[in-house]
Amino acid sequence: MRKPSPLMLALLSVFLLGGCASFSKDGGFGAIESATRTQIQKDTVWVRDDATRERVQQRVDALLEKTLTADDAVQIALLNNPGLQAALNTLGIAEADRVAASRLPNPGFSIGRSTRGSEIEWERSLHFNLAALLTMPMRADIEQRLFEQTRRNLTLEVLRLASDTRKAWVSAVAAAETAQVQRDAMEAAEAGAELARRMAAAGNWSKLRQAREQGFYADTALAMARAEQARTQTRERLVRLLGVSDPAKVKLPGRLPELPASLPPLPAIEQQAMDSRLDLQMVKLETEALAKNLDLTRRTRFINVLELGASYNTSNEEPPQRGYEISFELPLFDFGQTRVAQAEARYRQMLERARETAVNARSEVREAHAMAQSQYAVARHVRDEVLPLKKRISEENVLRYNGMLIGVFELLADARSQLAAVNTAIESQRDFWLAEADLQMALIGTPGKTAVSSVSSAPADAGGGH
Hints:
Blueprint: H1 6-20, H2 29-40, H3 50-64, H4 70-80, H5 82-101, E1 108-116, E2 119-129, H6 130-134, H7 136-201, H8 207-242, H9 269-276, H10 278-299, E3 306-315, E4 321-328, H11 337-402, H12 408-442
Antiparallel strand pairs: 1-2, 2-3, 3-4
Helix pairs in contact: 2-7, 3-4, 4-7, 5-7, 7-8, 7-10, 7-12, 9-11, 10-11, 11-12
């Protein structure tokens, strides 16, 4: 028996590889689902049929029936956000590319008819793209890496949506709480302005003192309007992330969660980020894919088109003709330098981007950790020092008022000062939870930045009456 040639062995392995290529049952989504459950202990679903959509809707409706916690909001977003569902279909596209690269290229067939006098000749040919056939293993490996990159990118998008939803929930709850404080301040300002008007009408107050009280009332009204704007803005952002069409179904708690007793230590956070950040893993996969592509381009720089064909011609006057033909592109004007130079430039570009991503990852996790520690210290200080001090001052002023040592305007000014301190406490507590969400995201991917409108209170001492 003759020993098989290397070309025949290569073709046989390619045929076997092409025969094994098929779509996976879950489309590669299982890895995303598992990573999401591992990282944030939440479920995510790729809705691809009506039955799954109905199950998801039932679960979302059940979560919306109660007051939403941050974890509930994240779970609803991962199940119901339409943008995420649209992005998950990118996985199906990437898997189709992977399977297509692992399957045999379709052969070409041509047929022709020609006549010469009474002779009728039929030409039939069957041809295969040998270049695509011989490079199929390398192309399949490249597409497999790109598929893995797409899967990690989608995992990162899922986790980023979870982080953005948590931050949106924090902002919405804090804005609603701030709006309520501003409404309380507005009541005090209205009472002070009305009393000032009556005292000025009775001739007991100067126009300057009345104008000051009216000015505080105007400032408080402006602050309340801005607080209501921030409440609407943050709530609608949360509703969009949840994918809920009826905002009335979203019921939020009246207060933010309490600060933790202490922050857990995070040793070696830089190394933890380098080991677990998905954006670094994606850059690595993309760099490896470009390296494979560069190797493939260098190997095929001279022969970009190579086809093998079999022909069978019949005539009504001559015996059949059988033969084969090989066609390829002659590298007369372009020796492949342009394709190689382009592939090399893309590879060098990705190497620099990988280095940039690594530098940014270390910096982002250091910044996020420092911000979480700083915001926690500020929130603790406001809660443990500023608010108790304001409360003691208020209690003393009530005693002084009962003893007729101070008037009602001094008491109102103190109430406004206390409301301003409560506002500060809400904002500092909100900023801590936002910084904590950024820190958790920085450990697994690039953290997002959520813009939050800060509501400034009216000056607390504007109506002191002194």
